[in-house]
Amino acid sequence: MKRLIVGMSGASGAIIGIRLLETLHDLHIETHLILTKWAEATIKLETWQNAKDLTCLATTVHSVSNQAATISSGSFVADGMIIVPCSMKTLAHIRHGLADDLLCRAADVTLKEKRKLVLVTREMPLSEIHLENMLALARMGAVILPPMLTFYNHPQTLDDMINHVVARTLDQFGFCADFAQRWEGVKHSPSSQQQKETQIGI
């Protein structure tokens, strides 16, 4: 059975984490959820749900303060970990090995065991500190996956954009969401006139 650790920090974008959990639940993926106290606050602020509503979506919910949880050990085998959304504070703690709560400890374990760690980072604009932390973690093997807007799939609603981010996140683990919209290429090349107009911004 596939098994993922899912962490949610206090960054904006709680709905992406919720949609991810809903999708993993539908795909029958075993999930181990960690919520920080600020994640709980953001969920309440940004959505019509609260932390208790998420317990039915995860297989197991771990207290962020429980450093003795199963997922704090490398002997607990998982396919990887996703932190969504990932705040810049959480990013910095992981980069510097400050495993001072279960969320950062689980991420630290994921890195040391050479398992996939996906960080759905949320901040705008990005400072030099943020960029350096992202680069350092990318070099350590983490996947930095900011929830970028995409327009080639012609999104009509906010849900379309959220679903796209979730689908691209799950792609990292080989899981396919049924709502994923893939790039299908261009069936014909634009004419030379169209290319010219594009270049000059017409």
Automatic annotation (TrEMBL):
InterPro entries: Flavin_trans-like (IPR036551), Flavoprotein (IPR003382), UbiX-like (IPR004507)
Reaction equation(s) it catalyzes: dimethylallyl phosphate + FMNH2 = prenylated FMNH2 + phosphate
Keyword Signal: no
Residue sites binding dimethylallyl phosphate per the record: Y152, R168
Record's keyword annotation contains Membrane: no
Domain annotation Flavoprotein: ranges: 2-172
EC number, UniProt record: 2.5.1.129
GO molecular function term, any single one: flavin prenyltransferase activity
Binding site for FMN: G10, A11, S12, T36, S87, M88, K89, T90, R122
Keywords: Flavoprotein, FMN, Prenyltransferase, Transferase
Function in brief: Flavin prenyltransferase that catalyzes the synthesis of the prenylated FMN cofactor (prenyl-FMN) for 4-hydroxy-3-polyprenylbenzoic acid decarboxylase UbiD. The prenyltransferase is metal-independent and links a dimethylallyl moiety from dimethylallyl monophosphate (DMAP) to the flavin N5 and C6 atoms of FMN.
Family per similarity comment: Belongs to the UbiX/PAD1 family.
Protein name per UniProt: Flavin prenyltransferase UbiX
Encoding gene per record: ecdB
